[in-house]
Amino acid sequence: MADIVPAIEARNIIKSFGAARAIDNVSLRVNSGVFLTLLGPSGCGKSTLLRTIAGFSMPDCGQILVAGTDVTRLPPHLRPVNMVFQDYALFPHMTVRQNIGFGCEMKAMVKPEIARRVDAMLELIRLPNVGDREPAALSGGQRQRIALARALAPDPVSLLLDEPLGALDLKLRLELQRELRSIQRSTGKTFIFVTHDQDEAMSMSDLVAVMKDGRVEQLDTPQAIYARPATDFVAGFVGAANLITARLLKRDKTHVLLEVEANQWLVPANRITTSITPEVGDEVTLMVRPEDVDAGKARDCDLSISGRVSHQTFLGGRIHIGCETPAGNQIMMETRPGQVPAADGLLTFNFRPEAVVVLSRSKDAQ
Ligand code: ATP
């Protein structure tokens, strides 16, 4: 069977600014129709990677392919991709219709075709009646919808969106997240979306690439990234995580035996998510999500760890309880008000072996 040609492919991209490496040998393939999000903390290289795909940043090494064609040396306007920016970047003295039609004119489409596409875009973004206004007469949310329509109008292979919702207040942001996702689904376009907001990434995307120090730490579905993070960095960045230091004592095909402070824990071998299987004697990091922890009576199959309560935070419908173990591991669980366990200051947390993930340590930047 012939290989599927990805809509966007980055091959071994390296980009430095002076001595600092912004992109450190990144390769990724994004299939047609996929909503991929580049997620990571400020400065991890998300925007530089997006700008490299768009042609606004030239890589030191590597190639960018769009629909199988090498575009690495092409300027932005000759690449079949379009970018949407946080600050909209609409032309202030053009009407909405002229703004949306701009890319089509650049492609030398005939006037009736441009008019048809502009109408279709105004319908798509559910603003059919603002075509004759100038951008100054629109709200922030409306301007971002127009910027989206302008980017989609020339029918690019892919849309590259650099924190497009970053300037909007929370309510509007949530509304536009849903709308963007629905527009992506209905048009079937490939979207590459940049954000540092994990909730935004998790709720909108088919795939998420979690970045750190110019590298992609993990590329997977939001569900897999949450349930089976590959590194301690991904586990801590996406959702709340208890990270516990342990040593690997024994390993066979079905199980690993781990030493955790004064305890020995037997965990199924398929809970190792790292591609590099740890060896006997190695120090590893274990992750357990707070919602998988309880402080009730332990069942026979449970793993346990005890510590002293360090804080309780009331969050309305739930309470966060934090605990510090004798070796300094911080364990956190969530419970409902009224179910707060005995408060003599000591607590034993229980969870099932299947709730544990054995992670690799994320490499630090050179
Ligand atoms: P943010 O979420 O804050 O936008 P980011 O993950 O998008 O961050 P980039 O903007 O890609 O990160 O920056 C990656 C690194 O490259 C940072 O250390 C940044 O300071 C550096 N960098 C980016 N552009 C330039 C530039 N034009 N000149 C010098 N350094 C740059």
Write a concise synopsis of the structure shown.
The chain is of the alpha+beta class and 366 residues long. It is built from 8 helices and 19 strands.
Overview of the molecule:
There is one protein chain. This protein has 366 residues and is an alpha+beta fold. It folds into 2 domains: 8-227, Rossmann fold (3-Layer(aba) Sandwich), CATH 3.40.50.300; 232-365, Nucleic acid-binding proteins (OB fold (Dihydrolipoamide Acetyltransferase, E2P), Beta Barrel). Helix content is 23%, strand content 33%. The chain has 8 helices and 19 strands. It has helices spanning 46-54, 96-106, 111-124, 140-152, 170-187, 198-204, 222-227, 232-237; strands spanning 8-17, 20-30, 35-39, 61-66, 69-70, 81-84, 158-162, 190-195, 207-212, 215-220, 242-251, 255-260, 263-268, 283-288, 303-314, 319-324, 330-335, 346-351, 357-359. The strands form 4 sheets. A 6-stranded mixed β-sheet has the order 6-7-8-3-9-10, sandwiched between helices. A 5-stranded antiparallel β-sheet has the order 13-12-11-14-19. Helix 2 (96-106) packs across helix 3, helix 2 runs parallel beside helix 4 and helix 3 (111-124) packs across helix 4. The longest helix has 18 residues, at 170-187. The radius of gyration is 24 Å and the shape is elongated. The chain binds adenosine-5'-triphosphate (ATP). Adenosine-5'-triphosphate (ATP) binds at residues 17, 20, 22, 40, 42-48, 196.
